[in-house]
Amino acid sequence: MKLKRLLIAGAALALTAFPAAAGALSFWHAYAGQQDKIDFITFALDEFARKHPDITLDVVAAEQSAYKTKLNTAMASGNPPDVFYTLPGGFLNAFVKGGQMYALDADLAKDGWRESFLESAIAQTMKDGKTYAVPVDVDSVVFWYDKALFAEKGWTVPKTYDELMALAEKAKEEGLVPFSLGNKDSWPATFWFQYMEMRLKGSGVVASFVNGDAGATLGAEGEKAFQTIAEIAQKDYFPIGFNGMSDQEANMLFLNGQAAMLLNGTWQIGASADAPEGFELGYFAFPSVSGGAGDQSDVLAGVAASFGISEKAENKADAVTLLKFLTSPEVMTKYVELRKTMVTVKGATTEAAAGPVLYGISNELMNAAGHLDSFYDTAMPPAATNIYYTTLQGVLDGSVAPADGAKRLEDALKANK
User: Fold this and answer.
1) What tens digit of pLDDT does each residue of 70-91 get?
2) What domain count does the chain have?
3) Domain co-membership, 333 together with 286
4) Number of CB atoms found within 10 A of residue 78's CB
5) Any bridge partners for residue 303, and if so which?
6) Domain for residue 144, yes or no?
7) What is the pLDDT of residues 137-156, one digit of tens each?
8) pLDDT of res. 17
9) 175: burial class by Cβ within 10 Å (0-12, 13-18, 19+)?
């Protein structure tokens, strides 16, 4: 295997940058520190070395948080890797604005490469009409529940928001937390606000701000979305102290049968692996909201990872060869099998590889969705994301009025920083 350096390790991974070996293609990724990630990248790079023995890779790996710092430092210093893992949205767009990304459109137009991706996914790695990275995996957000608990209580899956609230009240009367939520890190509550905005106004709201649309606005729906989730908190449908509770702690409440439902991403499948005996994970779509102007079939789903090529890469042909291999059906199906995550390549999320729950979400919800709306906090520029997080925390604990929260967020989005 022609790898000059394969650094896959845990939290103590050394992040010292080394110059790439002469003639080698430098490749950086964030698939370290977690066994399923390590298993995937080991498979992919072994297969690439076997099928492309003429291309030498210089590989550097890190865990997600350390990786982002390392990559930002490398890009800022003008010494970027040739091919690298990147997050879509604001993270990628910062590099695009700096003229540091190679546009892939001419390469994607060849041999049906572009058509192999879900259109809604590749749109999330585009900026100003050009494509600067290829999307790899996609996470969606749904409601999770224990089928055994629902059967025991005689509960049915809600189809409308009114039915969801009625079920929440029943759960509370049974001594259960209706909706588990651990919002210490701020992002878990974003799913509640975004789905309400999507159902009330429609998808693409934050994207319109990011794209510089003159008429971009949260509208009256933004205040109503904040008001709705504030009411859920006021009714004690979330756990006591949820703003100081971690997502992991909220997950334990759910798995132990202390909470009836959980609004979370498809990574919940893996997080439910250690559930007690008798627990049977089920899911349902975020219900329709009466009178909402949005397409009620829309799904909150965002590209979680992508790969791009530096404008400075000397051997772009080999770099494109690596990207094409990493996003080939063979590699992407293996990704699904090992990581139990949906991928952006059409037909690669097979039932055999995904398992029944993930395949059901992909086949029944994602494919039937009118639109897939990417994660607001990923799409926003960094300063706006921070304001979004603090505003949500404040609205939920009652320290920020919904109207003030909506104005604060809209102002931050208009500033586009």
Assistant:
1) 999 999 999 999 999 999 888 8
2) 2
3) no
4) 9
5) 138
6) yes
7) 999 999 999 999 999 999 99
8) 40
9) exposed
